């Protein structure tokens, strides 16, 4: 039985709505470990990474921003430690499952996963998260993790952020529907593959995810799956800080992650995953965290029959 190491990363520095730091607890309370056992894997919870409270910062210390990226120094600290944990988990032969936290944690997961490997990426998200401090309209780093790992803009000089093992041509978006104007140009000019909600409407989720898997496995050592809960429609996943209507349904989401695990069972292609942006303060009776736990179980092979 394969070991899945759960790494909680209760960080909310990258988002402008507080509360996403409670995501790891909420997903655990929703029964993640039991769900994973039901899926046939062996979950080992290593607890949460230490994330200093924003309130605890010394007000006389240097200002928290660098360029137009809020809390970048704090995010560097957390993501550097997370990257080490993820790469050590892989070296131990276990599977790193990172619970966010806002999507800036993916800078750490991807740097860890691609530490010693070429890694493809499947990005389930309403958003492209390809901004840099130079292009971001908000300064929120959760809108920048792919810009960071690709070393775009100022991130090219930040070794903790840039992950050379992640190549543009190995990244596939699934479910895009909210892109900033500057980002739209960046996506179009890039070598990334972008499947929008319109592609899912036209072709169906399974065909789209199979194509995304083809992109992310081609010439790589494995795939990182990044699941932002705002990928789903806000009626199904209300507990997120940046909801966008018109997202995937409950069934489409399960079908997508089942498609991933079907392929993984055949070829052992997935090497790491993060589940991010669950905000319990905005949630309704832990519904979004429960969904996060259920979808993760589907990704690891849980089936109806
Ligand atoms: N991971 C997320 N929820 N990202 C939302 C990003 C929103 C917007 N594009 C920004 O840069 O601020
Ligand atoms: Mn995101
Ligand atoms: Mn998003």
Strand line-up of the largest beta sheet: 2-1-3-8-7-4-5-6
CATH homology superfamily name: Ureohydrolase domain
Number of domains: 1
- Per DSSP, what share of the residues sits in E-state strands of 2 or more residues? 15-25%
Bound molecules: arginine, manganese (II) ion
Count of beta strands: 8
Percentage of residues in helical conformation: 25-40%
What does the overall shape look like?
globular
Protein structure class: alpha/beta
Largest sheet: 8 strands, parallel
Distance between the termini: 20 Å
Helical run tally: 10
Pathway: Nitrogen metabolism; urea cycle; L-ornithine and urea from L-arginine: step 1/1
EC number: 3.5.3.1
Keywords: Arginine metabolism, Hydrolase, Manganese, Metal-binding
InterPro entries: Arginase, Ureohydrolase, Ureohydrolase_dom_sf, Ureohydrolase_Mn_BS
What is the structure about, briefly put?
By secondary structure, the protein is α/β, with parallel strands linked by helices.
Description of the structure:
The model has no long low-confidence stretch (mean pLDDT 95). The longest helix has 20 residues. This protein has a single domain, classed as Ureohydrolase domain (Arginase, Chain A, 3-Layer(aba) Sandwich), CATH 3.40.800.10. It contains 10 helices and 8 strands. Strands 2-1-3-8-7-4-5-6 form an 8-stranded parallel beta sheet, with helices on both faces. With 305 residues, it is α/β, with parallel strands linked by helices. The structure holds arginine and manganese (II) ion (MN) (2 copies). The site of arginine has 15 residues, from loops.
């Amino acid at each position: 039985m394969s070991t899945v190491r759960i790494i909680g990363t209760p960080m909310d520095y990258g988002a402008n709505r507080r509360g996403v730091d409670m995501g790891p607890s909420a997903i655990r309370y929703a029964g993640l470990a039991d769900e994973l056992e039901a899926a046939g894997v062996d979950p080992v919870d290593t607890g949460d990474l230490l994330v200093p409270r924003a309130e605890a910062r010394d007000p006389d210390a240097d200002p928290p921003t660098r360029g137009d990226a809020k809390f970048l120094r704090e995010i560097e600290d957390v993501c550097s430690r997370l990257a080490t944990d993820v790469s050590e988990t892989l070296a131990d032969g276990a599977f790193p499952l990172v619970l966010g936290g806002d999507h800036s944690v993916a800078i750490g997961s991807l740097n860890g996963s691609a530490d010693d490997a070429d890694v493809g990426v499947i990005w389930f998200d309403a958003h492209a998260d390809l901004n840099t401090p130079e292009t971001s309209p908000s300064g929120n780093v959760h809108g920048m993790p792919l810009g960071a790992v690709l070393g775009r803009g100022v991130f090219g000089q930040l070794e903790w952020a840039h992950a050379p093992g992640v190549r543009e041509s190995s990244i596939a978006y699934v479910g895009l529907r909210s892109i900033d104007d500057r980002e739209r140009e960046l996506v179009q000019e890039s070598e990334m593959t972008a499947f929008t909600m319109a592609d899912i409407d036209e072709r169906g989720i399974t065909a789209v995810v199979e194509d995304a898997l083809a992109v992310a496995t081609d010439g790589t050592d494995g795939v990182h799956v990044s699941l932002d809960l705002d990928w789903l429609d806000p009626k199904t996943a209300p507990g997120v800080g940046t909801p966008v209507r018109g997202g995937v349904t409950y069934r489409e989401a399960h079908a997508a992650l089942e498609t991933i695990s079907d392929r993984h069972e055949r070829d052992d292609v997935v090497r790491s995953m993060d589940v991010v942006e669950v905000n319990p303060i905005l949630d309704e009776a832990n519904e979004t965290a429960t969904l996060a736990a259920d979808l993760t179980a589907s990704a690891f092979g849980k089936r109806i029959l």
